[in-house]
Design goal:
By secondary structure, the protein is mostly helical. The chain contains 15 helices and 4 strands. Strands 1-2 form a two-stranded parallel ribbon. Helix 8 (about 180-190) crosses helix 13 (about 285-330) and helix 10 (about 215-225) runs antiparallel to helix 11.
């Protein structure tokens, strides 16, 4: 003899399905617990018990596959309800919902955004006909835009100092090697172009000259401290000599770009570690600190130069990214992120659009 067990969350399920049709609910549950079933039942009871037309319901999910499954299950549930021979009013409601199911807003978030935009395209400057680029097409379009950006960059005389300093710092504009490049930055910007206003608006002054005075002072202090060693073969003494020679060679370089390149390549190795024996030194701790101070001064110089370059590139890339997004909008050739941004812009700026949405989707 079998018995049907009442689920421990039966009250919550009843609330979702029919008891809380006029309430806003947040439902959190694990995989396989019946979330889609509950959603289907809620839609059914909204139609049958709540008198809500299926065309006035928005059921939004994340993937096309999930949206298609949800639509099919809603259709199947309505058909089963009809087969149960409900009262005439329920039968009419179910039949009307079945007639509407293919056109109902049972879709992805991007699909719902497209639906909103399709109803009032002119409010956000879209042409009457809009096409959505799939991931392959949008990636190919990005590759073309990036090539044009790089070509324009190399042809821009005003960008010469920026490009050369990036080269000296080892900042890759584009590369086939497995390194982070400015192209990777552009890809991130592409997915968040609506957040680039502040970055694109910055008006940068010319690149400042490198300030090597702190490094020169640190190198001079190291030479003084190194004289406090009584053993020429001490490893820290040798380290002091090597670092002093490397810094001197970099600072003696007449070409500022070559000087910056040497500092960028070598400064991370200018560390003392735990080398040196106390018995050989007047103050071994101060000697180690002097070596580290040289490395820190060089790191500060390189870091500041890197920041100057990256900020200017960020502005250039942000402006190009936003220009591309505006061109897509004007031409009606949108990518998925464009749909979300433009739909948000529409409901934020148009009282008419908000009213229409409020009235249509109960």
């Amino acid at each position: 003899m079998s018995t049907t067990r009442t689920p421990v969350d039966a009250d919550a399920r009843t609330l979702i399905e029919r008891g809380g049709l006029d309430q806003t609910l947040f439902v959190e549950a694990g995989a396989g617990t019946g979330k889609t079933h509950e959603l289907v039942e809620r839609v059914l009871h909204l139609v049958v018990d709540g008198g809500i037309a299926l065309s006035a319901i928005a059921a939004i999910t994340f993937t096309e596959a999930a949206a298609a499954e949800l639509r099919d299950r809603i259709r199947e549930r309505l058909e089963r309800r009809l087969a149960e021979h409900p009262a005439d009013a329920e039968r009419m409601a179910c039949q009307q919902a079945l007639d509407d199911v293919d056109e109902a807003a049972i879709t992805t978030l991007h699909g719902f955004a497209l639906r909103i935009l399709g109803e009032q395209p002119l409010e956000v400057g879209l042409p009457p006909r809009v096409e959505i680029q799939d991931e392959v097409a949008s990636q190919l379009a990005f590759q073309d835009r990036w090539r044009r950006f790089v070509d324009d960059l190399y042809a821009d005389a005003d960008a010469e100092d920026l490009v050369l300093r990036a080269w000296a710092l080892g900042i890759e504009i584009d590369s086939r090697r497995r390194v982070v490049t400015l192209k990777d930055v552009a890809e991130v910007f592409e997915d968040s172009w609506d957040r680039l206003d502040a970055v694109a608006a910055v008006d940068h002054p010319p690149l400042p000259p490198l300030d090597v005075k702190p490094l020169e002072r640190a190198a001079a202090a190291l030479e003084v401290v190194a004289d406090g060693c009584r053993e020429p073969a001490d490893k820290l003494r040798i380290r002091c000599a090597d670092v002093s020679a490397a810094v001197a060679a970099a600072l003696a370089e007449a070409d500022p770009l070559r000087r910056l390149q040497l500092l960028a390549r070598n400064h991370e190795s200018w560390r003392a570690g735990v080398s040196g024996q106390q018995k050989h030194w007047d103050d071994v701790v101060s000697a180690r600190a002097a070596v580290d101070a040289v490395g820190a001064a060089a790191a500060e110089l390189v870091g500041r130069a890197t920041d100057d370059v990256l900020r200017r590139f960020a502005t250039r890339i942000a402006r190009a990214t936003r220009a591309a997004a505006e061109l897509r909008r004007a031409e009606g050739q949108l990518v998925f992120h464009d749909l979300l941004v433009l739909a948000r812009r529409l409901v934020r700026t148009s009282a008419e659009a908000r009213a229409a949405l409020h009235e249509r989707y109960q």
